[in-house]
Amino acid sequence: MKKFILFLVLAPLTVLGQDAFSKGKASTTTDPTELNINSNVQGTLLLPEGKEKIPLVILLTGSGPNDRNGNSTMTRNDSHKQLAQALLANGLATYRYDKRSFTQIKKRKIDPNTSFDDFVIDAKAVIAYFENDKRFSEFILSGHSQGSLVAMLAMNESVDGFISLAGPAETIDKTIVRQIAAQAPGLDKEAEAIFTKMKSQKELVTDVPPYLMTIVGKEIQPFMKSWMVHDPITEIKKLTIPVLIINGTRDRQVDVKDAQMLHDAKPDAQLFIINDMDHLFKLVGADEVAAAKSYNDPSFPLHESLVPAVVKFVNALKK
């Protein structure tokens, strides 16, 4: 049970590209540029060759210690790398970076005080780095799952567009309780009770059953508390820029209802639901075992509708 719930909450929530679309419109490109903005933000910039004043899409990954390519310490799917390459082939620049948590693991210097707000600080640092770069005409934040909320909180006047990719609509405590209820009925009530205690008391909750330790154990409670105070519905209502909300019907972590809730909160946003697309933006069927393989298989077939939707949205923002 412990591993099962860990997968639900901490599986890498990432974005995937679509090769079929990009192959038809491939362009010559420069080599990837290693670009480290500071000690916490280390990433890769991809630029179309011979183009000036182009949009820059900044990719933010989801929960877990994910690297710039969308991989974690437990899985490898190269999701963000694939998306970046597909957008590059369609004339768009991208910047993707390792999450702070991944960098800490890589350097073997894990900070137990890292909070959700540190991810927002890192995203703001990326925006600040590029906002005066004359090579780019527009800035778009593309946040996947947890990264959707991070992107919303990092917004400033320099950002021209926002793409929410499988972004939850509820606070993380409600999202986790709902995920557990769907796959392990009964445990959701225990988790909900612990979250309630976390909200109402300053002290750490100590009476946590072993099978919930990976979610609300004492070591992770400070981080979860820093995350659960942020409400995606509240944040998306504040946005005054064009927004694209994308979700897949085979997403087993973030339901299409979340996308609809975000859209209800911001009716002028574009809503795009993709049939048979999973949380990793791959084409999957109803077979749970087969679908789970997409988390650790970079060659898994990608859904053909994702990249065209992203490219269309970004190109429409061009000044």
Can you describe this structure?
- The chain has 319 residues and is an alpha/beta fold.
- The chain has one domain: Rossmann fold (3-Layer(aba) Sandwich).
- It has 14 helices and 8 strands.
- It has helices spanning 2-10, 19-23, 79-89, 100-107, 116-130, 146-154, 172-183, 187-200, 213-216, 221-228, 232-237, 256-265, 288-292, 306-315; strands at residues 33-36, 42-46, 54-60, 93-97, 136-144, 161-165, 243-248, 270-274.
- The longest helix is centred in the middle third of the chain and has 15 residues, at 116-130.
- The protein is globular.
- 45% of the residues are buried.
- Mean pLDDT is 88; it is low at 1-30.
Ordered list of secondary-structure elements with their pairings:
Elements: H1 2-10, H2 19-23, E1 33-36, E2 42-46, E3 54-60, H3 79-89, E4 93-97, H4 100-107, H5 116-130, E5 136-144, H6 146-154, E6 161-165, H7 172-183, H8 187-200, H9 213-216, H10 221-228, H11 232-237, E7 243-248, H12 256-265, E8 270-274, H13 288-292, H14 306-315
Helix pairs in contact: 5-6, 7-8
Give the N-terminus to C-terminus distance in angstroms: 51 Å
Shape: globular
**H/E element order:** HHEEEHEHHEHEHHHHHEHEHH
Overall mean pLDDT stands at 88
**Cα Rg:** 19 Å
CATH architecture: 3-Layer(aba) Sandwich
Condensed summary:
The chain is of the alpha/beta class and 319 residues long. It has helices spanning 2-10, 19-23, 79-89, 100-107, 116-130, 146-154, 172-183, 187-200, 213-216, 221-228, 232-237, 256-265, 288-292, 306-315; strands spanning 33-36, 42-46, 54-60, 93-97, 136-144, 161-165, 243-248, 270-274.
Features:
319 residues; alpha/beta; 39% helix; single chain; 14 helices; Rossmann fold; eight-stranded mixed beta sheet; disordered N terminus
